[in-house]
Each structure stands twice: as C-alpha cells, then as structure tokens.
Specification:
The protein is an alpha/beta fold. It has 28 helices and 10 strands. The N and C termini lie far apart (about 60 Å).
C-alpha cells in the first residue's frame, strides 16, 4: 500500500481494465464531482482522489485495475482533453507520452474487450459510433469533459489550463497492488466494506473468487471474473434497451432497478437441491439475505469437499450469467415478438413474475403449449399477470415462487395446472367480471393492456390486422393516455345524462365503460370538450390513429346526448365479456377465441 500523486501513479505503468470488468457507468453528475474535486484542490493546495486496487504478476507485466476503473477511465479522458487543449506542442507531446500514449509502450490506460478499439479511437478524435450502452456512456462522458475543458480555456486561457494540469497531476491517491489477482479482488471487497457501499453482485463475485482462491488454488478465479463480466454487460444492455422510446419497460427503466434485483430474481429460480443446499425458500428474500442466508452458508457447507465446491461454483456462476443473458434476450425480443412487447412494455409485468419468466425462457418453454391448454406458457404469463397482479391488485409471492422453485423438477402440464389453479384461487371469473363492470379502473395497471385488446378486436371486426410492433412503439413513444368519454369534471347537467345525482356520476366516471385509450395530444385537446364535440369535431376523436376511438365516435354521432350512464354500463359489460373470452382460465372457454387473438 502506498500514497502517491497521480504523476507518480502513472509513471512506468501500463494500466489495463480486464474485459470482465463492468462497462463504464459514470454519468455527468459523477464527472462534475471530479471537476469539483480538482477545483477544491486548486483552492486548498491538495486533495485525496481515492483508492486504486491493482494486480500485477511481475514488474514487466501489465497492471490490471481491480477497483477504480471508473475514476481512471474518467481521469484519462480528462487528462486527454486538458493536454489536447495545450498550445505548446513540446509540453503537449511530453504530457501525452506520460499520461495518454507512450511512443514505445502504447496507451498508458487500456480498456480491454469490446470497448478497447472504441476508447482508443475516441481519444484519437475519430468520433467512433457507439455500438453498446457502455460505449454510449463513454462517448457522452468524453463530450461533456471536452465541453467543460473548452469552458476552462474561455475562462482563463492557457495559464488556467496549465494550472489545472499541475493541480490534477499532484492530487494524491492510495494504491494497493497485489501480485495475485484473486487476492486483489478480495482486497477490493475488504476495502469497500469499510465505508464505501458495494453492490451485492460485486460482493458475490468477490466471495466466489475468495473460495476459489482459498479452497481451489485459484482454479476458477478467471472463470468467475469472466462470467460476472458477461452478466454486467448484459445488464447494461438491458437498461439501455428498456430506456429506448417506444420500448420503455417501466419496471426496468427505474433508476433503482440494478443488477442486485436480477441477483435476487435468480435466487428464487435457482435449483440448488442437486448440491445439497437450499435456495429460493424465502419469498421475502432481499439481496442481503441471498448473500447471508443462502450463498455464504452454501459455500461454507461445501468447502470441505473441493470437488463439490468447484461444481457448485461453476454451476452457480454459469446459471447466473445465463439468467442475465436471458433477461437481455427477453427485453431484446420486444422488438420482434408482439406478445412480449405487450407483456413487458404495455402491461409492465409484475416484478414477482420475472424469475419465472426468465427461467421459462432459459428452459425453452415460453413458446411451448401443453396437452391440456393450447396457449403457450408465454400467453399464460400474460393471463396470470393481468388477472391477479393487475386487476386483483395483489401480490401472492409465496404461491408464485413455489411454482418457480419447482420448474427444474416438473412438466409443462404441471406448470399450466399450477398457473390455472393460481388464477382460480385469486381471480376467478365471477370476481373478474364484478371488478371489470362495477369498480374504478382508471389507475389500474392493467387498463392500457385491456384497452389495447379492445383496439385489436375492433380492427379484427373490420378485417384489419392488429397494430404491429412498429405502430405500437410509435404510438407509445409519442405518448398514450387514458381518456374519459364523459369528462371527469362535468360542466353539464348530470341528470340529463342519466345520473340521479353527483354521487352516482362519481361512482361511474372511472368505470371501464367510460375509459378510452387516446393519444396524449388529443387527450389534452379533449380536456374541456363536451362528449358531443369529441365525437363530431374532426380534430378530436376522428383524428385518432386508434380504430376503437373512431368506432366509439361513429356509434355516437347524431345522438342528442352523445354518451350517457346507460352507455357506460353497456360498454363496461361488453368489455368485461371481451376480457373473459380473451383471458379465460378454462381451456373450454379459450377454444372459442379466434385463432388470430391467441397470438396476442
């Protein structure tokens, strides 16, 4: 361990970020914090910049960055931007060979794997096109840094630029360097556990490397690191895909959704029984309890038998990596698979069902049917989520995770029976009908999916194809909202529309029969319009790209009172029957649904 300046730290080293490390993840706020650190150092004369944990097998070998790659990547980009703005060519050449690219040994800091060529081309001002989420973040970060450096030049010219470079290179860091990479990774966990919070995924990786290093002579160190690198990259891709306009998945696009959530999902779906340990039994498990109550006890139990320990670690890391990859594949499939688009983007599948969905995908069962139900398991997942988690609004975790845990030792028929029984238990037909007809559904999470089903059926009645993914994504990107046919705040005589008083209107205004899916722009335009105007003015309902909206308008044109209590009730009943036919529990009911609707 040694404390040294940035200048000393870079001297004589070729720093390398292994390909298994996470992608670059810093955002503008992180970069701005680094700038603030340098500004503070300018004022007070010094600043501690952080800790770097490194691994180097010999003095002539590359120095691998075990911890600190985010700061080092950003530092390299900042140094490059500062040095590149120097007018003095001699100083620029010397500093570039010291911090960026030595004429004999090459780049002082390298990002291995798929980002290596991109990073070097970016520093060479070749403006490479990003092809991954990590590369996009690198590009945005570099642009932000260069813009801030340009601003420094405007503020103080070359003197300020030199002052920044001098201050930055004299800032201090703490360096840990370890010959054995496995020990370096364990050191990374130890150092961070003393104050800087770590993601549980990082701690799990460190723990597995520790057991490999301690009990298996490091035989699995590289394999573990490589597998986790793949998992981290899959997750970065998942976040990028789920954030794309028109394909946004609300559950995944949340800032709080991190790798640790997928780690927890994997716990619920991992079959640990062949290794003599238990997993998935605690349906209230947190990432902390996954680590403390499952993984640590499992490793401790198996450490006395190196062969069993090795098999467990290999199986666990491979399955975890596959789990991340399966989630990436599912999110990617929303570009080509309409059912998955509806399930993940429109319906926003419940978090409790993600472990089952991902495991079924890994098993190759999602597209399979059974001898007792002609629907695919993919369609049954939609059924379960919509009926129980959305319309019932409950979250029976124990029941779901019981099915999920058993997937490794069951048949497709048993899974189908389990899902049907689950629906019968929590949302039988009578309760579903009652809820659809007589309850407030305005803020129900399943509402948009049901209204899209009305749209599909309306198009089918006109012998038109359902909206494809391109149209769905375009409409979602532009924005869709739920419209009240009779306005929420009536500026009309309630009695003339069939309501005996304001209380009865309040009871009905959020009913299914009074709700429509409509483009946000049109919804805003309709805000103060009467129902008669909505169905007749060409720039309102008639301007919608949704056929179901136009159909409702067409059915009400010419009516003195365009939409009344009796219309709300009749449409609620009609839509309730449509949903029962579209998402039945029994096979007999399903057999009556047109084949085109079975496809989602």
């Amino acid at each position: 361990m040694s404390k040294q300046t940035i200048e000393t730290f870079f001297a004589g080293k070729n720093l390398v970020v292994p390909s298994y490390q996470r992608d670059y993840a810093w955002k503008e706020r992180n970069i701005d914090e680094l700038f603030a650190d340098v500004e503070e150092a300018l004022e007070v004369g010094g600043h501690y910049l952080g800790t770097f944990i490194l691994s180097q097998q010999s003095t002539s070998a590359p120095v691998f960055v075990v911890d600190g790659q985010q700061r080092l990547t950003t530092l390299t980009m900042l140094l490059d931007a500062l040095i590149g703005s120097l007018e003095n060519a001699d100083i620029r050449t010397v500093m570039r060979s010291t911090y960026i690219q030595h004429p004999l040994t090459g780049y002082k800091f390298q990002v291995l794997g798929e980002n290596k060529d991109f990073f070097e081309a970016m520093l060479a001002k070749q403006n490479p096109e990003p092809t991954s989420a990590g590369q996009t973040r690198l590009s945005k970060a570099y642009q932000h840094i260069r813009l801030r450096v340009q601003d420094l030049v405007k503020q103080g010219g070359q003197p300020l630029l030199l002052q920044w470079l001098t201050t930055l290179t004299r800032m201090e860091v703490l360096e840990f360097i370890e010959r054995d990479e496995g020990k370096a990774i364990r050191m990374f966990q130890t150092v961070n556990d003393r104050g800087v919070p770590l993601a549980k995924m990082d701690i799990v990786k460190s723990l597995l490397v520790y057991y490999s290093n301690r009990y298996l002579d490091g035989a699995l160190d590289q394999s573990i690191a490589t597998q986790f690198g793949k998992a981290f990259r899959s997750f970065n891709n998942v976040k990028a895909l789920a954030n794309e306009p028109g394909y946004q998945i609300r559950h995944i696009d949340r800032d709080s959704f991190r790798e640790d959530d997928v780690l927890r999902y994997h716990y619920f779906a991992f079959n640990a029984a062949p290794f003599g340990v238990e997993a998935g039994g605690d349906y209230n498990a947190t990432t902390e309890s996954v680590l403390e109550s499952f993984l640590k006890p499992a490793l401790q139990k198996l450490r006395s038998d190196p062969q069993k320990l090795r098999v467990f670690i290999e199986a666990y890391t491979a399955d975890l990596t596959g789990f991340f990859g399966a989630l990436e594949a599912l999110v990617q499939s929303t570009r080509t698979d309409r059912v998955n688009y509806m399930l993940l983007v429109v319906q926003d599948l419940s978090a409790t069902l993600y472990p089952m969905l991902i495991r079924l995908h890994l098993m190759g069962w999602l597209q399979q049917t059974s001898s007792i139900d002609s629907r695919t398991l993919q369609s049954l997942m939609e059924l379960v989520d919509l009926r129980v988690f959305k319309l019932r609004g409950t979250n029976p975790q124990a029941d779901v995770f019981a099915i999920t845990r058993g997937l490794g030792n069951t048949t497709i028929e048993q899974v189908v029976l389990g899902l049907q029984s689950f629906c019968n238990k929590f949302m039988p037909d009578a309760l579903l009908t009652s809820r659809l007809v007589s309850e407030d559904l305005y803020r129900n999470m399943g509402l948009q999916r049901m209204l899209w089903e009305e749209e599909d059926q309306t198009r089918l009645s006109l012998q038109q194809p359902a909206a494809d993914i391109a149209e769905l994504s375009r409409l979602n990107a532009a924005g869709l909202s739920v419209e009240h046919v009779l306005p929420q705040n009536p500026a009309f005589d309630i009695a003339s529309y069939g309501f005996k008083d304001a209380e009865e209107f309040e009871e009905h205004k959020h009913r299914l029969g009074n709700l429509l899916l409509l483009e946000k722009g049109l919804n805003s335009a309709c805000q103060n319009a009467t129902v008669e105007s909505k169905v007749t003015v060409p720039t309102l309902y008639a301007a919608s790209g949704l056929v179901s909206v136009k159909a409702l308008a067409a059915s009400r044109v010419g009516k003195p009172l365009g939409y009344k209590l009796e219309n709300i009730e009749a449409r609620s009943q009609s839509l309730a029957q449509l949903m029962l036919q579209r998402w039945p529990i029994s096979v007999a009911a399903f057999a009556n649904v047109p084949a085109s609707q079975n496809e989602g």
